[in-house]
Amino acid sequence: MRLQGLDIVRFLAFCGMVLVNFRLAAQVTPGDDWPSLLTTALEGRAAALFVVLAGIGVALAKAPASLMLRRVAFLFVLGLANLTIFEADILHFYALYFAAAIPFVSAPNRWLWAGIAVVMALSLCAQLILNYEAGWNWDTLHYADFWTISGFLRHALYNGWHPVFPWLSFLLFGMWIGRLALSTKGVQLHLAIWGTVAAALALIPGWLIDDPEVIDLINTTSIPPGPFYIIAGCGSAAAVIGLILLLHPILNRLRMAQWLAPAGRQSLTLYAAHILLGMGTLEALGWLDGSLTAPQILWISLVFCLACLIYTCLWGLKFKRGPLEMMMRRLTEIGR
Prior knowledge:
16 helices; 2 strands; Bact_Transport_Assoc; membrane; DUF418 domain-containing protein
């Protein structure tokens, strides 16, 4: 069963990623203005929501391991190609998350939670023992030895933009959510309430403790991704999912759902488009040099999201899936 509300959440997560990635690519320096504060608040949260939604999709699809492995290969190759133009690509990370999640597809819920705990614990141990800054130039956000075996593994597993440890926790958490009765208001309300509570509680240690020796471990920022960031990310994702599912009947009556949902069903295509077309246009205009202000890049991002919304509605008049979604389906379901 496909819940239209989840497609709406997926599009909103995409919009959040556009705001964050456009500002990152345009080298815009954050300030104290509301566009800066909004985009900063979305850093690490929009991408986490996307991964949680992917986990829900895995749980709902219940795809066999063979199909998941073919999709892992597709996303990994697509992600590597994307890395040649956008170093903060998330698609190759998705491939790694999905590969690691295969043993959990039919596992009981307690194993999902055990997996989350183990992933978070291993990530924390790595941050305490290893050099998190290895490979990074924080001034340029360039990862020096990414295209080496050791650099790639370090980046993918430990200190990249969205490393498996601990980001796999988001996917496993999403798989748990996907097993709930998401169509019932009780579950939706619980997700909204308890997600908000978890996200709020995760902020408390950072407010109470200002010791520079431990601040990176208790912060809720995505770099480095400490345990409280994972809790905050899971909480905010659950809250948004629950809230939008609760509001879906209203959005449907207002005829907004029929505009928003098609865009969520093309999240893979739109992700590629926001890099190739969105950032490509900004580069062609010479706007990736730090010359834009935070309000300017915000409005550019919103205009791009609106253009995506219009495109997906028009595309949906003739096609059920987006271009990349169709390609992935055809390439990975050959012989089925």
